[in-house]
Amino acid sequence: MLPHPTPHTLHPTPGLFITGTGTGVGKTIVTGALAAILRQRGVDVGVMKPFETGVAPGNASLEGSDAGFLQRMAGTADEPEIVCPVRLAAPAAPLVAAALEGREIHLSPVLDAFRELCRRHEFVLVEGAGGLAVPIRVQTLSPESGGRGARAI
Ligand SMILES: Nc1ncnc2c1ncn2[C@@H]1O[C@H](COP(=O)(O)OP(=O)(O)O)[C@@H](O)[C@H]1O
Ligand SMILES: [Mg+2]
């Protein structure tokens, strides 16, 4: 008899979703440190910051952003659109920053990017936006989107 599909068999790439109580609590530092340690141990680690606010959306590079820092720590060269698919200018919660730009955040490109990183790498680290309860869309919290398939710490 075939086993029932489990989250593990659907997303066989191990990973961690790093969240916290809010902004400025050290998520980026912790995620970057984990990426550097894994890399040093020879693990091909991919990183993702699915939603980042307070950054220039048109900026093709991730320079100066959390996503850029994580990518430097991991030593990866994935496209900015995959590492940080939702970039918004206002330094606010993604839901608010998107509304200020008259945009709505769609989750399917974010999940596609996450799956692509899982395909490319042995391990994937995802840094959440703001705190655990930061709204991305009405009725969608951050860990339910970018971190799907990863364990929360
Ligand atoms: N353990 C720590 N000791 C001292 N400073 C820290 C520590 N962790 C983070 N910081 C500093 O706190 C600030 C916010 O950390 P950051 O990782 O960017 O938080 P977040 O990603 O949660 O917004 C940064 O300036 C960082 O250098
Ligand atoms: Mg951060």
Detailed description of the structure:
With 153 residues, the protein is an alpha/beta fold. It has one domain (15-152): Rossmann fold. Helix content is 34%, strand content 17%. The chain has 6 helices and 8 strands, in the order αβαββααβααββββ. The protein has helices at residues 7-10, 27-40, 66-74, 80-83, 94-100, 107-120, and strands at residues 15-18, 45-48, 51-53, 86-88, 123-127, 135-137, 140-141, 151-152. Strands 2-5-1-8 form a 4-stranded parallel beta sheet, with helices on both faces. A two-stranded parallel ribbon has the order 3-4. α2 (27-40) runs parallel beside α3 (66-74). The longest helix has 14 residues, at 27-40. The termini are far apart. Mean pLDDT is 85; it is low at 149-153. It binds adenosine-5'-diphosphate and magnesium ion. Adenosine-5'-diphosphate binds at residues 20, 23-29, 66. Magnesium ion is lined by residues 27-28, 66, 127.
Q: Give the structural class.
A: alpha/beta
**Beta-strand residue percentage:** 15-25%
> Helical segment tally?
6
Arithmetic mean of pLDDT: 85
Poorly predicted runs: 149-153
**Highest-level CATH class:** Alpha Beta
State the CATH topology.
Answer: Rossmann fold
Kindly state the percentage of residues in helix.
25-40%
Q: What is the oligomer described by this structure?
A: single chain
Question: What small-molecule ligands were found?
Answer: adenosine-5'-diphosphate, magnesium ion
Please name the CATH architecture.
3-Layer(aba) Sandwich
Major sheet attributes: 4 strands, parallel
Order of helices and strands: HEHEEHHEHHEEEE
Total number of beta strands = 8
Q: Radius of gyration, rounded?
A: 15 Å
**Given the C-alpha coordinates, what overall shape results?**
globular
The neighbouring-strand order within the major sheet is 2-5-1-8
Q: What is the H level of CATH, i.e. the homologous superfamily?
A: P-loop containing nucleotide triphosphate hydrolases
